[in-house]
Here is the input.
Amino acid sequence: MQINPCMKHKLIRDSVRDFAETELAPIAADIDRNAVFPLDVIKKMGKLNYFGLQVPKEFGGVAMDSVSASIVIEEISRVCAAVGLCIAVHNGVAIYPFLQFANAEQKKRYLPKLAGGEFIGAFSLTEANAGSDSASVETTAIRKKDGYVLNGTKIFVTNGGVCDLALIFALTGFEPGRPQSSVFIVESNYAGFLRGELEDLCGMRANPVSSLFLEDCCVPEKNLLGKVGDGMKIGLSTLDTGRIGIAAQALGIAQGAFEAAVKYAKERQQFKKPIASLQTIQNYIADMATEITAARLLLYRACSLKDEKVPFGCEASMAKLYCSSVASKVTSLAVQIHGGYGYSKEYDVERYFRDAKVTEIYEGTSEIQRLVIARSILSQLIL
Ligand SMILES: Cc1cc2nc3c(=O)[nH]c(=O)nc-3n(C[C@H](O)[C@H](O)[C@H](O)COP(=O)(O)OP(=O)(O)OC[C@H]3O[C@@H](n4cnc5c(N)ncnc54)[C@H](O)[C@@H]3O)c2cc1C
Here is the structure.
């Protein structure tokens, strides 16, 4: 039987919501407080194909369309943003480069393990002096007889503390006027691959974000992704896709905080009536609902363009910019609606509020998204 797309998306949403409510809701506050990555739940997610959302079936994935994949990330993040981050990064910036740039042998070797959740992936571009300015990477990859020797320090690596494989951006030379970088598939069991302490973060505390140290780390030649010098090309196109995942994550956080705020507004009595009956609170709720809906439409539009295989980078940046801004605003209003209790760890909105902020920072800050959007528009207009 052919299922129409809307029904398919509803079925996916219902089933992921059920999983998240059952498996993640009871532990989300604890794993945040204690900064624990929930490996047992992650294993179950692997069995449910949440780690191979857009991987072709021949490599063990479920080959979802981009709206479906976003719904999975959205629904997990609605309950636990740190686990949402794990799958957003794994399915986005860690797997997409394999789908787009890996050769047949690399796909065969790595995609089944990544899609089944046997390998957790990471994407490692950022360094102390290379954040928004990603071309300033200083990690080096020196050509030796059978491959490359990598040296350098990567910071803020999502999934870094548990990843089995990281895509490492490293300098391989200089073209006239600019450095030339390349991407390497580095397994965590390679000699010279070391993990730093976990970051003590404001939000997303259950994700093991860490530094990675490459100390004379030997990487075989067959683990070069794409061609020598493809680093910038791979990085930029991968981030276009990754931004859709972060937009979905931000949207899920906003949705979770919104639902909590509506529930609380109906329950909380002041002046002998529910605060939901106050027009000010109703205005907040109306604005939150409207902006979440607009964010969702912007996100699904970027997804549709991606699936139609037309350029979608500008729309992905718009979705990421808007969804993350809505997440910050909605979570702040959700705390406001909870009053003093919203500022206490007794209520989930405190966690949502902390988790939302970083969606405006990683995979390109909001300032960088505006740059991408403006450049795209200005390059098309004939002035
Ligand atoms: C929890 C977390 C997880 C992360 N996960 C990963 C990961 O998995 N892999 C990875 O590679 N990185 C990751 N990052 C790094 C993240 O992508 C960077 O922090 C981000 O790109 C910003 O870089 P920066 O922190 O160096 O800030 P900077 O680049 O130093 O920016 C500081 C400020 O200056 C502004 N700014 C900088 N340049 C411009 C410009 N040209 N125009 C206007 N404003 C500008 C920025 O918008 C920002 O407001 C993660 C970060 C965090 C916090």
Observations:
- Residues 89, 123-126, 131-132, 156-158, 201, 204, 209, 358, 361-365, 367-368, 371 surround flavin-adenine dinucleotide (CB under 6 Å).
- The mean pLDDT is 97.
- The chain has twelve helices and ten strands.
- The CA atoms of residues 301 and 319 lie 9 Å apart.
